[in-house]
Write a sequence for this structure.
């Protein structure tokens, strides 16, 4: 029962909201990073081009004041860290030969001719800007920044942005999760109140924390409880009347049987005694059924001897064998009513031999009733099994009589259910419920 209930457990509103928030946060972080990368790729490119122009102006001013920097050979004798990614060259415009360069600058000219805008070199590895010396028009300055440096800058900005966006998104998801838990507490409290609501006791009516969305639910529960209380009161009155109406004829039958026992010949007296016992048992069963269906009282569980129950039931001429290999704890009157109806089903389907087996499987008590009657087709059995699982007892269902319905209701009153296992011949019904009383109460 617990496994089946866990497998069919509906999704959680809080869980769905938390998952949605988590995915929204991740998606938001990724989209933010893409947008930021697109914007930064443009804006950072312009910014670094501007810085490249400014660096070129600085180098140009220094070289214009100190013409000896433009002599042949390397002018830089010391290596600086920035020279890994920012280099300069003095190039002869006519020959394209490098006249002077920084320590890490390539030996080949990065640009063959001066240009007015910042542009990529032919190999695509440097972003360069050129500037012509006014005192030496035949020479021009090339200041370049490596692609590797620019890509690293772009990557670091995007990475930091992605980490920051995801961190903020996850933090927002955690805060929203906490807020969702807080806001769903009134709903959980309302559910707890409904669970302990007794329509016959108005003081137990559930009250929700004032929330606009919960007020209609609270009012609907109150209205439903009021109507249910009125119905229970009416049905209890009917139960009392029905019990009195049934008790009188059963008592009359008992009196007539008592007189018949005294006046009957000794040969038939045992049968009349059994009939009288069965009539008394029938009266108690009807009383128990009325109490269960009309007032919803819990079954009165106690240790049951199947042999005693069957001896008290005067039933047809079928051969009934009992195999009780495990103790059975149940309401004897309700169990007798279920067995009486199942045996009646077996008799109607021409059974001659019925075996009633009581055993324990795991934590469940299993009561199996197997007969050698005509049984039913697999299709019919499948429809009956589906009706039992769905508790479809009304018109239009596969249930054609009271036998299986009553057996299933008695099993469910004990916290279990009825099932129709496969059998080689005849028809088999299993009543299964938790053997542990605490487990039965929990389910």
């Amino acid at each position: 029962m617990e496994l089946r209930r866990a497998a069919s457990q509906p999704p959680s509103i809080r869980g769905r909201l938390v998952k949605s928030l988590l995915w929204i946060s991740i998606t938001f972080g990724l989209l933010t990073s893409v947008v930021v990368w697109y914007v930064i790729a443009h804006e950072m490119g312009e910014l670094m081009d501007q810085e490249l122009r400014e660096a070129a102006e600085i180098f140009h001013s220094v070289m214009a004041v100190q013409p000896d920097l433009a002599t042949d050979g390397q002018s830089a004798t010391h290596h600086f860290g920035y020279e890994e990614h920012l280099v300069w060259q003095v190039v002869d415009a006519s020959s394209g030969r490098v006249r002077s360069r920084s320590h890490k600058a390539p030996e080949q000219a990065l640009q063959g001719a001066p240009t007015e805008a910042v542009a990529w070199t032919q190999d695509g590895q440097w972003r360069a800007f050129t500037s012509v010396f006014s005192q030496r028009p035949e020479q021009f300055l090339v200041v370049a920044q490596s692609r590797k440096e620019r890509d690293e800058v772009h990557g670091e900005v995007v990475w930091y942005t992605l980490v920051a966006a995801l961190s903020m998104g996850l933090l927002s998801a955690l805060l929203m999760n906490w807020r969702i838990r807080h806001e769903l507490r009134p709903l959980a409290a309302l559910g707890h109140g409904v669970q302990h609501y007794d329509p016959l006791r108005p003081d137990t009516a559930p009250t929700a924390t004032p929330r606009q969305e919960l007020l209609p639910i609270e009012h609907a529960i109150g209205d439903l409880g009021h109507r249910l209380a009125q119905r229970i009161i009416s049905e209890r009155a009917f139960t009392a009347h029905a019990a009195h109406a049934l008790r009188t004829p059963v008592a009359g039958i008992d009196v007539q049987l008592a007189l018949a026992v005294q006046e009957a010949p000794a040969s038939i007296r045992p049968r009349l005694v059994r009939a009288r016992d069965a009539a008394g048992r029938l009266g108690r069963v009807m009383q128990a059924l009325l109490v269960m269906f009309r007032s919803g009282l819990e079954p009165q569980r106690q240790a049951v001897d199947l042999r005693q129950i069957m001896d008290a039931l005067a039933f047809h001429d079928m051969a009934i064998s009992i195999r009780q290999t495990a103790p059975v704890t149940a309401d004897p009157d309700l169990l007798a009513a279920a067995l009486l109806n199942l045996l009646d089903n077996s008799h109607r389907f021409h059974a001659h031999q019925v075996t009633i087996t009581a055993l324990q499987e795991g934590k469940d008590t299993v009561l199996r009733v197997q007969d050698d009657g005509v049984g039913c087709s697999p299709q019919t059995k499948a429809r009956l099994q589906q009706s039992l699982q769905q508790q479809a007892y009304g018109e239009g269902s596969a249930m054609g009589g009271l036998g299986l319905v009553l057996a299933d209701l008695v099993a469910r009153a004990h916290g279990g259910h009825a099932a129709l296992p496969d059998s080689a011949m005849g028809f088999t019904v299993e009543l299964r419920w938790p053997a542990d009383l605490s487990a039965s109460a929990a389910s």
